Amino acid sequence: MKLTLATTKLSKPLLGQSSNRQWIYFLLLAIFYIGWITFMTLSNQWALFQDYWPASLTMVLGSFVAGITAEGGGAVAFPVFTKVLHIAAADARTFSLMIQSFGMGMASIFIVTRGIRVLPRVILYVSLGGIFGHLLGLFWFPLPAPYPKILFTFVTTAFGVALIISRWGLQWTPRMDLSDWNHKHRLIFLFLGMLGGVFAANVGSGIDVVTFMVLTLMFGINEKVSTPTTVIIMGLNSIVGFIFHGVVAQDISPDIWRYWLVAVPVVVVGAPLGAFVGSKISRDAVIVFLITLISIELITTVVLVPFTAVTWLVTAIVTLFFGLSFAAMLYYRHNHMPQMSADSPG
Question: Phi, psi (5° rounding) for residue 172?
Answer without folding.
Answer: -160, 160
